[in-house]
Amino acid sequence: MTDRRPLTYAESGVDILAEESAVKALTKHFTYKRKGFGSPMDVNMGYAGLLTLGNYIIGITTDGVGSKVLVASEMDNWQTIGIDCIAMNVNDLYAMGLEPVAFVDYLAMESVEPSIVDQIGMGLENGARMANISIVGGETASLPEIIRGFDLAGACIGITKKGAVITGEKITDGDIIIGIPSSGIHSNGLTLARKLLTKYSYYKQYETMERILGDELLVPTRIYSEVLSIVKNCEIHGLAHITGGGILNLRRLTHLGFDIYDPLEPQAIFKMIHSEGVDIEEMYKTFNMGMGFAIIAPESEIGKIEQVSSDAKVVGKIHGSGIKIKINGRYVEIVK
Predict the structure, then answer these.
(1) What count of Cα atoms within 13 Å lies in the side-chain half-sphere of residue 242?
(2) How far is CA 225 from the centre of its chain?
(3) Pairing label, strands 176-181, 99-109
(4) CATH no. for residue 321?
(5) How many domains, the chain?
(6) What is the residue range of 290's domain?
(7) Is residue 195 part of a domain?
(8) How far apart are CA 72 and CA 237, in angstroms?
(9) Which terminus of the chain has a smaller tally of CB atoms within 10 A, N or C?
(10) C-alpha distances in angstroms, 288 versus 78, 125, 163, 265, 322?
(11) What pLDDT, in 10s, does the model give residues 141-156?
(12) Based on the domain organization, do 317 and 277 belong to the same domain?
């Protein structure tokens, strides 16, 4: 992968920094906190909101499929985006060591089309089975004055015992970073990808791809349910779901640095996007680049983790301070 003229996610219409500012503008008003039973747990990781319920911690997360729905509509295939919706939610719960148990969906449509809704429901059911969760409700809204096409999102509840939430506070210098591969582009960065790939046909197979481009973009987000077994049987210091913001998701875990000296191989779709004008640092700050989940653990745990997740691989090590993130010797970001 070689560098060419820079093109950024922000230039495609999605500005991650602006979104962070918007979140701060919104959440600065959220000052009221319930006391006693059901009071919030003060952990600012961003993956899920946490509540204390007696001897248990309940996590609540919400996420959607994003502009991947436009690819589904282009391909007249809506059977897998429900899996994406489930995955984007449960993976955030796995990233804190919580077991997902229940899900609700929200489908907003310009006009109700039963054939599309039927396929979306198939995907949601398949995703629920993969994650071993129940879909306990949801909402479908017809909003012709607001929505073009449709939007699919959801919310998920997870649970763990009190004191078992993995926050990253145990991460120490010398810990190992273990990556678990993604299934492809997942459900992030599709706005940039679609903008760059307009000259390509969704119905043709390119380079070393295993399928036509449209189907490559629709490969469902991997559900990392094996993380529950890893957390149960191994000493784990940190977990990260690599979604929007790419490798910068590691910033949520610790003030220490990340030296990723042997990254996982990015799939062909990422190489195609990179060749169309996105520099390598921007690629790692936008996409998962082949690593959809990261585990931080002592070196002694490598063997046990790899036994549970057969395609997991050591990709780097924790070192230094200042949240330096380095990929193959190149700094992606330095925060002082």
Answers:
(1) 28
(2) 13
(3) unpaired
(4) 3.90.650.10
(5) 2
(6) 176-333
(7) yes
(8) 37
(9) C
(10) 23, 25, 30, 11, 22
(11) 999 999 888 999 999 9
(12) yes
Asked if residues 54 and 43 have their Cβ atoms less than 8 Å apart, the reply is no
- Residue 98 DSSP one-character state: P
**Mean pLDDT across the stretch 298-317?**
96
The whole-angstrom separation of Cα 63 and Cα 94 is: 14
Bridge partners of residue 99, in order along the sequence: 159
Other Cβ atoms less than 10 A from the Cβ of 226: the count is 17
Contact 22, 15 (CB under 8 A): no
Q: 52 forms bridges with which residues in the sheet?
A: 57
DSSP state of 21: H
Q: Helix or strand or coil: residue 335?
A: coil
The CATH number of residue 95's host domain is 3.30.1330.10
Radius of gyration of the chain (CA): 20
Residue 271 buriedness (CB in 10 A; 0-12 / 13-18 / 19+): middle
Instruction: Give the burial class of 218: count Cβ atoms within 10 A of its Cβ; 0-12 exposed, 13-18 middle, 19 or more buried.
Output: buried
What is the pairing mode between strands 257-260 and 325-327?
Answer: parallel
For residue 128, what are its two tokens?
């629920």
Please give the average per-residue pLDDT across 155-178, as a whole number: 96
Q: Which amino acid is at 72?
A: A
Q: What's the chain's length in residues? A: 336
Can you tell me the distance from the alpha carbon of 260 to that of 233, in angstroms, rounded to the nearest whole number? 25
In whole angstroms, what is the distance from residue 177 CA to residue 315 CA?
6
pLDDT over threshold 70, residue 257: yes
Contacts of 57 (CB under 8 A, 6+ apart): 41, 50, 51, 98, 159, 160, 161, 162, 164, 165
CA–CA gap between residue 108 and residue 172 (Å, rounded): 44
With bands split at pLDDT 50, 70 and 90, how would you rate the model's confidence at 21? confident
- The structure tokens listed for 316 are 């780097």
- Class of residue 278 by CB neighbours under 10 A (exposed 0-12, middle 13-18, buried 19+): buried
Give the separation between CA 126 and CA 156, rounded to whole angstroms: 15
pLDDT band at 24; cut points 50, 70, 90: confident
